[in-house]
Specification:
By secondary structure, the chain is an alpha/beta fold. It has 15 helices and 5 strands. 49% of the residues lie in helices and 10% in strands. It binds adenosine monophosphate and magnesium ion.
């Protein structure tokens, strides 16, 4: 990618990045309605550019087959995770993307340590993995509703008041381990305002085709708004690291949130800058030999190498006995 484009993207997302070591107070530090002076009508074009760049990078990432990327998406209900994934990944090859959604843990999952189920769904080399909800639920919903922690049947030593601090530390180390082994981790929090959530819930009730998305439990969860804001603020403060930073994306305008999420992903891939593998002199010599054999197999009247005939200096070779 041209350097100026990479720099423009880096500048665009800089205000969204949680500086490692900083103390976040969500309400004070991040405005869910921020839109960087952009207008909605500029949005479509920008998103298209982002999606194109992503497709390009993904192709190189897959070809190089050395690095993987994990994008963790977190939000409160109706924050726009599903729509963001649909739009941002619309241009990429489905073979190279692995989306995993995490729900209330199953009994099998509860039978293991709390990071186990996330480990199972990590992207492989050359892949982009998206976590729709992630291991961060383990310090969010589990913290806001301690009965979730009860269900995890932890030994005495793994509980206690510093359990969240220890989980932050575990998570930072786990992400560090992944990064050191070629898997870049990047985290996006879609930051929705309370009022916009209310409006989106009402829309889910008003539109029949959205009814299936509505859950009375989500509305009950709204009562815990302040607890979540606090849990998010502490989690962002403790787990935004140099190797796996958090971006707080303003989510009240869906079109803007999607541009930001695409930009964060493009920026992450630009940091890896994956390259198509090239072949050495010996392998190229082999390729030339094989090409000659294939050209000799051209049926009567056919181009020896139709691709080269169209794109390069073509030479029509008549096969023996073809006249
Ligand atoms: P949805 O994303 O609407 O399909 O809902 C998934 C539900 O699973 C949400 O209510 C989450 O709070 C819940 N959930 C996700 N991860 C966990 C977890 N580790 N422990 C408890 N609940 C979870
Ligand atoms: Mg839901």
């Amino acid at each position: 990618m041209a350097d100026d484009r990479a720099e423009a993207i880096a500048r665009f997302i800089a205000p969204l990045r949680v500086e490692p070591g900083s103390r976040v107070d969500l309400a004070r530090d991040f405005d869910p309605r921020y839109r960087a002076h952009l207008k909605k009508r500029d949005g479509a074009e920008l998103l298209r550019t982002g999606v194109e760049l992503l497709a390009e990078y993904q192709d190189r990432l897959a070809a190089q087959d050395t690095y993987g990327v994990l994008l963790c998406l977190q939000a409160l209900d109706a924050g726009g995770k599903d729509g963001t994934i649909r739009h941002v990944m619309s241009g990429v090859n489905p073979q190279g993307v692995k989306v995993s959604s995490f729900k209330v843990p199953s009994s099998e999952e509860l039978d293991h340590d709390y990071l186990w189920r996330y480990n199972l769904r990590l992207p492989g080399r050359g892949e982009i993995g998206i976590f729709n909800r992630s291991h961060y639920e383990e310090v969010l919903v589990v913290r806001v509703h301690p009965e979730n922690l009860e269900r995890q049947r932890l030994p005495e030593a793994a509980r206690g008041p510093d359990v969240w601090k220890r989980r932050y530390r575990d998570i930072n180390r786990w992400e560090r381990h992944l990064t050191d082994n070629g898997f870049k981790v990047v985290k996006v929090f879609l930051n929705l305002s309370r009022e916009e959530q209310r409006i989106r819930f009402l829309k889910r009730i008003d539109l029949p085709e959205k009814n299936w998305k509505f859950s009375a439990a989500d509305v009950r969860e709204r009562r815990f708004w302040d607890d979540y804001q606090l849990a998010f603020s502490e989690m962002l403060s403790a787990t935004s690291t140099e190797w796996a930073p958090w971006y707080v994306v303003p989510a009240d305008r869906k079109w803007f949130a999607r541009i930001c999420a695409a930009a964060v992903l493009v920026h992450t891939l630009a940091g890896i800058d994956p390259q198509y593998p090239t072949v050495g002199a010996e392998a190229r010599k082999q390729l030339r030999l094989v090409r000659r054999d294939l050209e000799d197999e051209a049926p009567p009247g056919a181009e020896a190498d139709p691709y080269e005939a169209e794109h390069g200096k073509g030479k029509k070779r008549k096969k023996k006995g073809s006249r």
